[in-house]
Design brief:
Length: about 180
């Protein structure tokens, strides 16, 4: 079940996210050696707080049905080439028994949560980043490569991802907006 933005993200892929076999995406580790690439890599480093997750479907932008109106999440890029991301829908129902959820409670927790960590590569000249999940809430995504195009505008980062929605399998473009944590 895909419960997050691959992106995130998937997570994590104009600004598009696509799932690419790791052998095609490359395992070299870092971004373009150009000075522009180094500058963009430096600007991506750090911690980002989630602003919103929306989807473009049929030419219109809608709120994400998985993460809701007030999602919470963090995206972290470090200087060693590692990424970590978590997103939650804050309206997920609380469990009646905090230690033993019902099957429906457990399902709602998974559907409203997305998270993974692993390596990343920046392809600054081409405007995208690739995430390689090594730990992921969705076991099938471990070892995959997720290509996300990005836009940096001051302290705002926007990632776009084309993927199937977890709840109904519809192909959409996810738009994930982050703000730098200072």
């Amino acid at each position: 079940m895909r419960a997050h933005f691959h992106w995130m993200a998937g997570c994590l892929g104009g600004l598009l996210l696509s799932q690419v076999p790791a052998t095609q995406a490359g395992q070299s580790g870092s971004a373009s050696p150009s000075s522009q690439g180094s500058s963009i890599a430096a600007r991506l480093l750090g911690t980002w707080r989630l602003v919103e997750v929306s989807e473009e479907e049929g030419g219109r932008v809608i709120q994400s049905p998985i993460y809701g109106a007030r999602p919470v999440g963090y995206l972290m890029y470090d200087s060693t080439g590692h990424v970590c991301v978590q997103l939650i829908n804050t309206t997920r129902p609380r469990w009646k028994d905090a230690d033993v959820p019902t099957p429906e409670e457990a399902r709602s927790a998974i559907v409203g949560f997305g998270g993974y960590c692993g390596r990343y590569e920046i392809h600054a000249d081409d405007g995208y980043v690739v995430h390689f999940p090594e730990a992921d809430i969705v076991p099938n995504e471990i070892g995959q490569a997720f290509k996300r195009s990005f836009t940096l505008n001051g302290d705002q980062l926007q990632l776009k991802a084309v993927e199937r929605r977890a709840t109904d399998g519809v192909l959409t473009t996810k738009i994930i907006t982050w703000t730098r944590v200072k």
